Amino acid sequence: xxxxxxxxxxxxxxxxxxxxxxxxxxxxxxxxxxxxxxxxxxxxxxxxxxxxxxxxxxxxxxxxxxxxxxxxxxxxxxxxxxxxxxxxxxxxxxxxxxxxxxxxxxxxxxxxxxxxxxxxxxxxxxxxxxxxxxxxxxxxxxxxxxxxxxxxxxxxxxxxxxxxxxxxxxxxxxxxxxxxxxxxxxxxxxxxxxxxxxxxxxxxxxxxxxxxxxxxxxxxxxxxxxxxxxxxxxxxxxxxxxxxxxxxxxxxxxxxxxxxxxxxxxxxxxxxxxxxxxxxxxxxxxxxxxxxxxxxxxxxxxxxxxxxxxxxxxxxxxxxxxxxxxxxxxxxxxxxxxxxxxxxxxxxxxxxxxxxxxxxxxxxxxxxxxxxxxxxxxxxxxx
Amino acid sequence: xxxxxxxxxxxxxxxxxxxxxxxxxxxxxxxxxxxxxxxxxxxxxxxxxxxxxxxxxxxxxxxxxxxxxxxxxxxxxxxxxxxxxxxxxxxxxxxxxxxxxxxxxxxxxxxxxxxxxxxxxxxxxxxxxxxxxxxxxxxxxxxxxxxxxxxxxxxxxxxxxxxxxxxxxxxxxxxxxxxxxxxxxxxxxxxxxxxxxxxxxxxxxxxxxxxxxxxxxxxxxxxxxxxxxxxxxxxxxxxxxxxxxxxxxxxxxxxxxxxxxxxxxxxxxxxxxxxxxxxxxxxxxxxxxxxxxxxxxxxxxxxxxxxxxxxxxxxxxxxxxxxxxxxxxxxxxxxxxxxxxxxxxxxxxxxxxxxxxxxxxxxxxxxxxxxxxxxxxxxxxxxxxxxxxxxxxxxxxxxxxxxxxxxxxxxxxxxxxxxxxxxxxxxxxxxxxxxxxxxxxxxxxxxxxxxxxxxxxxxxxxxxxxxxxxxxxxxxxxxxxxxxxxxxxxxxxxxxxxxxxxxxxxxxxxxxxxxxxxxxxxxxxxxxxxxxxxxxxxxxxxxxxxxxxxxxxxxxxxxxxxxxxxxxxxxxxxxxxxxxxxxxxxxxxxxxxxxxxxxxxxxxxxxxxxxxxxxxxxxxxxxxxxxxxxxxxxxxxxxxxxxxxxxxxxxxxxxxxxxxxxxxxxxxxx
Lengths: 383, 670
Ligand SMILES: Nc1ncnc2c1ncn2[C@@H]1O[C@H](COP(=O)(O)OP(=O)(O)OP(=O)(O)O)[C@@H](O)[C@H]1O
Ligand SMILES: [Mg+2]
What we know:
The complex is a heterodimer.
Chain A: H1 4-8, E1 24-35, E2 38-49, E3 53-57, H2 64-72, E4 79-84, E5 87-88, E6 100-102, H3 114-119, H4 129-142, H5 158-170, E7 176-180, H6 188-205, E8 208-213, H7 216-222, E9 225-230, E10 233-238, H8 240-245, H9 250-255, E11 260-268, E12 271-274, E13 277-280, E14 291-296, E15 302-304, E16 318-328, E17 332-339, E18 345-352, H10 353-359, E19 366-370, E20 377-380
Chain B: H1 20-51, E1 53-56, E2 62-66, E3 78-79, H2 80-87, H3 92-95, E4 96-97, E5 103-104, E6 119-124, E7 130-133, E8 136-139, E9 144-147, H4 148-151, E10 154-156, E11 159-162, H5 165-171, H6 174-207, H7 213-219, H8 229-239, H9 257-282, H10 285-293, H11 298-309, H12 311-327, H13 330-335, H14 342-352, H15 356-389, H16 401-430, E12 431-433, E13 437-440, H17 454-485, H18 490-501, H19 508-519, H20 533-543, H21 545-557, H22 563-569, H23 574-603, H24 619-628, H25 632-668
Antiparallel strand pairs in B: 1-4, 1-11, 2-3, 2-6, 5-10, 6-9, 7-8, 7-10, 12-13
The structure holds adenosine-5'-triphosphate and magnesium ion.
């Protein structure tokens, strides 16, 4: 079930990144991981270029942490290879690999002060004290916690501890930064703030970064590319917009953002039928007459009044609906629409405040909505 | 989405390359495993095999020829069995033997004279048969010709066989099997009493608002600090033949079951209290309050909520107490009189009758209740953990004057019992002849005037306890660290964990006897430590390994699992992490382990009673020996020396712990 992009362009032995042509920094090929009978990773292949920020995203138990720990050498994969900077690190112990890691728990040493924590990785034989102290000061300034140097971890807030853990991991200037749900222990506000800070820091240092998360918003806002995983396989790899706009599987469409899912029958490679209504849809390769699921996001549904067309050009897939419910969600209205032509199916659509006012949309009223063909995605029914 | 890609390619699983850390960790784990193998598994194995080894003189295995008076013409060769069939010189009972028994061959010749010119030839019928000429060993089927004078120095060695004969003869000797019944009876009676008393105490301490809780907690730990012989001595002073309160016994004797039960209650109480207290503390307060809001009567609440809530603790405590009573040696030795108990039987068989095989048989029998208790305890620990993880709210007792007074009176009575027994020993140790001559004196502390080892024994005990605390703590903590914080090597870690849990199931007497078998064997490369301080330290560390190991494990489990990966990713060796973080953070647990080992090393009798030598006499054993020799007051005095020492050790421990806590408070404070 490897995604086409990966399947079509398997990791090349020369280590050239498939999309950019730049040399890949981290090359994961055919990774399997079995815990006894249970298989947690099923042939995962992936390549990451230097300086890239990649998120592993997926539901709980899909194998994100397992994949990260394989990269870190903490849980050796059962099969498959990993190359970092051209070097085969597949079976190397963690201490022989080149990465810094931040765990969900931060794992700060509780009996050492903040500066001793950061200095922990720097204290190698021969390195002068002054140099260590200078580097610690530099890192503390980088994460904006210079004033906390003499405190102990328990005396800092969760967000501060998180940044210290980051500073400690970056102290030895590793080639790769691994973050396992670094923000999940924090409350929502701090989390949003730290997202930007981590992203900023990563950009400044240019370090190749892998972050594990099950929070799609986090992934969408931070990642250069997202790796969507499910049941131990990669469903899709792509930029946040690709993942959102062109999900390659029903799972991805469903997992990222909101969707309306409508059972349909394939009529042509760009047409389908829902309850006898023929609709234009995005091009696909499904067999004629096969059962499919049509997917459209609530934000992609365009509102029109019963009389006029609210747009230049000819609308496709224009259908009449009755407004059943409306819910004001601050920046937009979420509506639940019933469409007789789609078998009284309920569609969820998000309309701007502006549109609702202009078109006089109200509960009980009739209106028309357009389901733009290129936004109506079609996926085969799971077997 | 081809299904074909969903099966894993065939082949072997990848194997990690080992880092130098892994190699060192694995090496250390192997070293400590070897320690446990040598100090525990191997001796136990030898003990078990001894218990199924029987010895008897196999007369058919030897052939003898005798010459006439000229010494030249030999008669026909006859087996010793045939000779005995003619003379009946040796009865079948005499053919049963112990490993050390020898049979003089001249007994087969009633007319034997060592001055006669008659010559003898002797040989074994197979290569296993062996005999001694003087102290020189001969073996095999070659004839050996000897004159009469030499022939009288020939003795046959018994042949060995494996079988359950020892057990058969044990179980067909009523005087021996009686000890099983006695031990179980004492165990059951004491258990019932102690659990009832401990439950009351725990209930009062946890659920009332009475005063002096701290003092009661302190007093109830006193019995841990003294050897189990001490309550026996106190009871003798109070109720013995010349006891002050002998009349109160109404004709019954304190020497025997009564003394054993009372003394056992004394020395097992702290252990039961600790377990039951913990169980009560985790009994769910919400349940409790729910019952209160349903207006259930106090009495019903007690039986329907409190007791079931603490049931695992109660069962666990019951098994611990039962095992302690059944396996204890010191107390029944002092006060048991003619009442045979299993642990004392081992001692009698080995030290009294030199019957090592029978000692081994009794040991194996003693292993049964201890092992059973151990497994039940393990099972219950797991259940209780599950109970604990259910979120429970700590119970907040409300003041209730009448209830608090009842609790207070009850605790005061128990405390009085403990203080009385200790107080009697204290008095007896410091007056001329308690209770008849109360002139204060220190003469009872002049241990050099009596047998038992004198002050040297006390010094040895201190030395032994310190060495045990130091080496034991290092071995235990390093071992626990390796098993808890290393990756891979699952087989090794499982084996190690098993070895570390095993000592709990092995009574001290059994361990001691196993050590004799194993170490007192010239063929054993570790034979050199026999009779030295080292074997005492090794046996004591091993004897008290499990509880220490569990303490260390608990502390280590509370530490973040990701410390090691973080250190590895920072390219720092694990030992840097170990010394900079693991040890400092675990220091409270490390101190707890060392004080536990120290206190137990000071008071233990059972394992070391078989292992001390004239240079390594110990205070606790001296108490036993002085009491045995009738020097009861010096025995009490030595017992009190152990008590004082342990109190001081506890105070030092508390002092260090507090200093450390204040010094490290900064990072513990949130
Ligand atoms: N040591 C292990 N032994 C057995 N199964 C394991 C082990 N570690 C992980 N698993 C299983 O492998 C699967 C993937 O686990 P993993 O921790 O990678 O999930 P995850 O994607 O990180 O999930 P979450 O978002 O909950 O952290 C899970 O079903 C988990 O139960
Ligand atoms: Mg995870």
